Amino acid sequence: MSYKYSELDNRNLRWFPSDDTRATLLTIHVDSGKIRGLQNLRIDFSYPITAIAGRNGSGKTTIIELAACAYHNTGKGFKLSGRKYPYYTFSDFFFQTSTEGSLSGIKIRYQFIHNKWRSPKNPAGRIGPGWQERIKRHGGRWNDYDGRIKRTVVYLGIDRTVPHSEKSVAKSYRKLFEPMVERGWELEVKDVVGRIMGKDYSTFTYMEHSIYRIPIVSNSNFTYSGFNMGAGEGSIFELFSIIRECPDGTLIVIDEIELGLHEDAQTRLINELKIICERRKFQIICTTHSPRILESLPPEGRIYLEPIGEQTNVIKGISPEYATGKLSGRKYSELGVFVEDETAKLIVENCLTAEMRSRIDIIPIGSAIGVMRQLAARYKENEQSKICVLLDGDKRVTHNDQVRAFINATEKPQSEILTGWVENRTNYLPGTEWPELWVIRQRNEEIYKKLAVEFGLEFERLIEILESAERAGKHNEFHEVARIINFNQIVVSCSLIKAALETNPEEPKIIFKWINSFLN
To answer: DSSP 3-state assignment of 509?
Structure first.
C-alpha cells in the first residue's frame, strides 16, 4: 500500500532541505573518472535518513564511504575509540594492492546547504546550497582535505556486529575490564535499546580497559555483558551510545544497518532514528538488503542502485516490493506494467481477467518520476516491447513533465521516435484525482447499498464515512474507512475499488484493452 506519512516524517521533510546550520549533505556526484565501477553517478539526499539498497557489487558501500569523506573536522572533534583522527580521508577506504592500478583522474562533487561559505571576496560567508570538489589527478593526491566543510562524521562498518566473544582482543582482556565512569546518558540509551529490542532492561553501563569497552546490562534480575549478547543487541547499544556522545548535526554512516536485527526490531530502530534526526538534526546514510528497512522510510529516504552495463541506474523512492523483486533476481513475465503504488496495482488487477494477470507483472515503483526512470532503464536495456506504465490519474495534468523525465533518464537527445515511444507506453488510471480519492467519490446508490451490506453498515452511514475519508488527506482515504469500520484495510480497499469500477464499467475495459494491445 501507499506509504502513510507520519507527522514526524513531515517535520523531518521540512527541516532537512532548509536548515543551513548543519552543513547537510544534499548530493554526491561522481563527475569524472571511475571509482570501484561507479562513474557519472549522482545521488541526491532529500530525507534525514537515506537507505541505499542494491544487489552485491552495485556500489552501495562505495557511496557511503564517499559520504564519510565529504567533511573535515576540528582536531578536538569526536572520534571513535581507536581512530587517530576525528575525520575520514579516502585512504581510509580506497586503497589497492601492488597488482592493482592506482586511483586517478577522479572528480567527486559534493553539494551542501551551509551558512558559512567563505571566500577571499566574501569573508563574512554566504548562506545556502553550494558545491565542493575532491579531485585525484594522475599520479597525485586527493586535493584540499583541510578545506572541507567541518562536521562530525561517524562511519560504522559491518565489523560493529562481531560479538565480543569472537574478538580475540576482548577475550584476552576479559578479566581486566572495570566499570566505566557514567556519562549521564546511560538511562536514555537503556530505554531506547529496550524499545527496539523489546526488552525491559533495569540497568545499563559500560566496563572498559584501555581503548576497549563492553556493555553490561541487567534484565529480569539477570546480569550479562557483551560477551553474552547477540550481535544485534550489542551493536544497537554501541550505536545509541555513540549517538549520545556525538554533537548535534552529526552525519552517521552505517553499512548494512539491519545486521543482527529481526524485522520488528528493524522497524523500531528506524522509528527511533527518525526521532533523533528531528530532535538533534542528525543525517544518517546507510546501506541495506532489507525490505523492512525500506518500508519503514518514506519514499524520499529510499534509493536503489542497479548496474546496467557501464552505468549505474539510481532509482529514487523505490517501493519495497519492487526492491525485493530486484534483490531476489526474479524473472519478469510477458509484460511488466509499472504503477506508482499498491493502490494502483489493486485497481489494475481488478480490470483484468485471471488469464491476463497470469501473463503480466504489475510492479509498484514508488513515484511517477521513479516509474518514468524505470521505463527509461528498460528502454536502454532494449527490452522495449516488454513494458508499459499506468500513472495515477492526477498526473495527467503534468504529462509533459513525465515525458521529459523519461527522455532525460535515457540520456538521449529528444526525437520524434523517442517521444512517440514513451507516449505509446504511458497511460493513466481513471479520473483526474489520485486513485484513492477517485474511488471514494464514486457514489452509485444501487451498488453502494450492496457495499454497505458487505461492510455491515446502513447506506447513509457508509456515505458519511466516505465523506469523512475524503477529508483524511492524500492517499489516506482507504486507511480512514478501514479505521472507522474496524475492517482489514486490504479487504476495504478491494471492495471500494470493485464498487468504483462497477460504477464506471467503461474504465476497466479501457485499461484491459490497452494492456492487451502489448500482449497481442
So the answer is: helix
Q: What angle separates helix 399-410 from helix 368-380, to the nearest 10 degrees?
A: 40
Nearest CA among 138, 137, 142 for reference residue 91: 142
Burial 504-514 (b: 16+ CB within 10 A, else e): eeebbeebeee
Count other C-beta atoms under 10 Å from residue 325's C-beta.
16
245-281 pLDDT tens trace: 999 999 999 999 999 999 999 999 999 999 999 999 9
Q: Answer for the pair 155, 253: CB distance below 8 angstroms, yes or no.
A: yes
Measure Cα distances from 280 to 15, 204, 272, 319, 347 in Å.
11, 23, 12, 28, 41
Q: Is 24 buried (19+), middle (13-18) or exposed (0-12) by CB count in 10 A? A: buried
Number of Cβ within 10 Å of residue 115's Cβ equals 13
Count other Cβ atoms within 10 Å, centred on residue 12.
22
- Residue-wise pLDDT for 97-134, tens only, equals 767 667 788 999 999 999 887 665 555 567 889 999 99
* CA contacts within 13 A on the Cβ side of 406: 27
Burial of 89 (0-12, 13-18, 19+ CB in 10 A): middle
Q: Which residue has the cell 592493482?
A: 100
3-state secondary structure of 21: coil
CB atoms within 10 A of CB 143: 12
The answer to whether 41 and 316 are in contact (CB under 8 A) is no
pLDDT higher than threshold 90 for residue 428: yes
Q: Do 236 and 196 touch, CB atoms closer than 8 A? A: yes
At CA 316, angle to CA 49 and CA 350, rounded to 5?
115
The Cα diameter of the chain in Å comes to 79
In DSSP terms, which residues pair with 38 in a beta bridge? 35
Length of the chain: 520
DSSP H or E run through 341: none
Q: List C-alpha distances in Å: 390 to 7, 88, 384, 512.
A: 29, 45, 16, 12
C-alpha cell at 157: 562498518
Residues 6+ apart with CB under 8 A from 421: 379, 384
Enter the DSSP assignment of 266: H
Contacts of 122 (CB under 8 A, 6+ apart): none
